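To close the chapter, one final illustration. This time we ask the reader to focus less on the individual chains and more on the assembly as a whole: which components sit near each other, and how the overall shape emerges from the parts.
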Amino acid sequence: MNVHEYQAAEILARYGVPVNPGRVAESPEEASAVAAEYGGTVVVKAQVHTGGRGKAGGIKLAHSPEEARQAAAAILGMDISGHTVNKVLVAKGVAIAQEFYLGVVLDRPNRQVLVMASAEGGVDIEEVARERPDKIVQRRADPVLGFHPYLARELGFALGLPATQVNGFAAIAQQLYEAYMGEDATLVEVNPLILTEDGEWRAIDSKMSFDDNALFRHDESEQMRDFAEENLTELDARNSGISFVKLDGDIGCIVNGAGLAMATMDAVKQHGGEPANFLDVGGGASASQVAKAFSLVTADPNVKAILINIFGGITRGDVVADGIREALAEVEVSAPIVVRLSGTNADEGKDILAKAGLTAVDTMDEAAASVVAAAHSRAD
Amino acid sequence: MSILVDSNTRLLVQGITGREGSFHTTQMVEYGTNVVAGVTPGKKGEQVAGVPVFDTVQEAVAETGANASIIYVPAKFAPDAIYEAVDSGVALVVCITEGVPINDMVPVYAYVNANGARLIGPNCPGLITPGQAKVGIMPGFIHEPGSVGLVSRSGTLTYEVVDMLTKAGLGQSTAVGIGGDPVIGTSFVDVLRLFEADPETESIVIIGEIGGSDEEDAAVFIREHVTKPVVSFIAGQTAPPGKRMGHAGAIISGGSGSAADKIEALEAAGVRVAQSPSQVPALLKEAIAAA
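The assembled structure is written out below.
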């Protein structure tokens, strides 16, 4: 789960991070009022769950409340990579002497938490990692004991900071680590973290993502969820124990198992089609789950044909077929349906489907070819 | 021979009286797995599928000599169950549970390794040595004893491939599902090392997917250390970046973890990579013939 910059900043401030002052605004008037209160220059920043805000014109400097009003009017309602801007952050202008990057992430290969920093702040850190990896310094936290202060100081010295600035930097690195662990984040990032001309540290732009598996113990993070930023179908699916991801194609997919669901999408593509979604119906594939899956898939007006791919393991094919039959009685589906049923009791399942007027095929490739043909014939 | 589990495995089931635990215990017993004990705190004296239930793992191990454990407890309690198994001297711990927080698994991983135990999973289907021991939730009947070692991050996709291998006359030495989470106990490389050393495993199939760099690490290991023929399939070629595809670990992030990168790395290491799961048996026969 992702949160907005202003929300990440609020969380990090609780951990002691010196976050640059800012206030969220939902109208040009509110933005103007915040600018008047701060006085001087402010920065008006689009709050959306995507990068590239600056390039899209979603970040503007304003030297007066009137300019802030105009900037907010321009930015609010803007579309940035498919995300509509509903809020702006009005942040106090600050004289930057030096910019840094500081982030905490999971180091998957080593199964440890990694704190990384760079003196090349304010730019895309992934680009730095690709092109100038020597410009990134990193230290891993001990899995049990945590991120020792000496590791944070080592990072500061490795960045070439003057000795007088190392402790201040190290404290922020530790606060970010504490926030990462305390909030069950999967990413905490400040970019840029700056030194002001007065030699003060300030977090200018904060970013946090959370581990969905740990949300059960973080009600306060769940409260921060911005429903305008979420695909409501995906959320709805999640509440039913179904993994669903909306895609751009026209072939709806209903599959049991995440790996098989990905492989099914790939097969559709290989046969000249485009998947409309990723959908893992979960282990059970009961009638109610299948019915829910149908309603999720058919809610997408782009869907021209539906592919159901079930490998019956512990879940028996006849039970799944019953589920499909019952689901079709509950949900009206006009798109042609291709079923692939294999594994336990597949033959019994096919008999049940035949009575419901559905033909099931044996292999995934066959099913993919057939569903693509069905979608294309409807497109013509 | 085989790896990790066989007819000498004496299995303990943690969470045996739960819905999942009791169902799969029955399935494993029916397959012929030697399930010697179960644990559910407070349920000592009960039986599930003829298997005696104990209050603690310590007690279950002392009474039955269990040497492997499989965990079906809810995500909140899974890390504790792993610690309990490791502290009781269980050498192989298989965690089926899905949804364990990542930050809980980081210290678990370190602890398991520091204590010389092996963890498979979490969020995995378990592992099976056909004809000897099924330690997991996979359908047993699709497997046949043989010489193909299979390792995968997925569940049903693995069954799909196993089923096709069996139908093509390619039985399996052991099939291991290592799990779909970002932090898992046993990696592709760990399993490859075991398969390479196992005299009865003659060829290897790796089923990977988007996210992380386990497949890339496997490619490096294969190039340097694996002499047996290897075939692979990578799921998620059409997956968009930044979206979690069901498995918590299946996400392309920061421009890394794409299927294309993994396929390129594996092919560079001499691995034949199938375009679809159905090509795996033919490619494997080709690889075996060329070896």
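The CA atoms of residues 185 and 210 of chain A lie 4 Å apart. Chain A has a mean pLDDT of 92. With these observations in hand, you are ready for the problems at the end of the chapter.
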